[in-house]
Amino acid sequence: MRTPSVPGDARFDPTLSAIMSERRQLTGLAYRLLGSLADAEDVAQEAYTRWYAMSPQQRAAIASPGAWLTKVAGRICLDLLGSARARRERYVGQWIPEPLPHHTDWVNGRPGSTTADPADRVTLAESITMAFLVVLESMTPAERVAFILHDVFQYPFADVAEIVGRSPAACRQLATSARRRIRAYEAPSTSASQRTAIVKDFKQAWEARDMATLVGLLDPDATAHTDGGGLVKAALEPVQGGERIARYLIAFSGTASDRALLVRTVNGQHGLLVQEDGVTTGVIAFGVSGDRIKHIWAVRNPEKLRPWMTAA
User: Fold this and answer.
1) Second label for 17, Cα 20 to 30 Å away, from 156, 183, 219, 230?
2) What is the rounded distance in angstroms from the CA atom of residue 287 to the CA atom of residue 222?
3) Residues whose CB falls within 8 Å of the CB of residue 203, separated by 6 or more in sequence, listed in order
4) Are 274 and 283 in contact (CB under 8 A)?
5) Residue 155: other Cβ atoms inside 10 A
6) Alpha helical stretches, state H, 230-287
7) What predicted TM-score, i.e. pTM, was given to this entire model?
8) Other CB atoms closer than 10 Å to residue 260's CB: what's the count?
9) pLDDT tens, residue by residue, 201-240
10) d(CA 251, CA 212)
């Protein structure tokens, strides 16, 4: 992660430490909104740039620097989301949010905040899973911003309204609409231990090229998405059906002389890291429904794997 270039020194600028402590929240917010770690870091950097572009007198007049930075970052993300759909229409193949390694610890929110109704809260861990991020992609930019700010980061709708540019009542409706999308997508709950066991069984079956076991672990209506970004080989369309996915995986496993599958935490849940000749070439996240795998998201685009080069 890049360190922002800011003038001054904490010894002479008493607000610097407080301002810099907001960076993790800004990055975490922007990642959830944009699905890209690189873009999220750029958003946080731009928010700091705008802060230090003001005069000391202007900065001193801001009662809550953290709230100001969040407002700026939220508006930047809203603008980026407006153009993201067009960019992704030009993307080669399937676009999948950038996967996060286990040691990414900046996905925090506002500790102790209780502004959201308990029924509307989404835990910080839930909000970075690949399944959750994929559902966010189906929302309008305004829905996404209102929902993440209120339900995840627990900002009151009055604050959200200033960022989205709509009334608090309208932002409440946006969050309600987003919640309906999330609930429609929710799969039957699976315990963390059961999920881990399924991923490990999948790994072993894939390594053994065990077609029958793979098919048994996959939901008959499972879907596999692969993101190569046009830079490496990947399926341009989703692979549908448990048996078809199993055949695809077994065919794919025969293309490398030295492939290793490693169980790693991907976006807060167990997934797989793929290495070929010691080089990370893919990260796989799973959506588990009951006792079977319902979704597979395999990211092979090397531009999205940079955080994993040192996370193996």
Assistant:
1) 156
2) 9
3) 261, 263, 272
4) yes
5) 27
6) 242-253
7) 0.87
8) 15
9) 999 999 999 999 999 999 999 999 999 999 999 999 999 9
10) 14
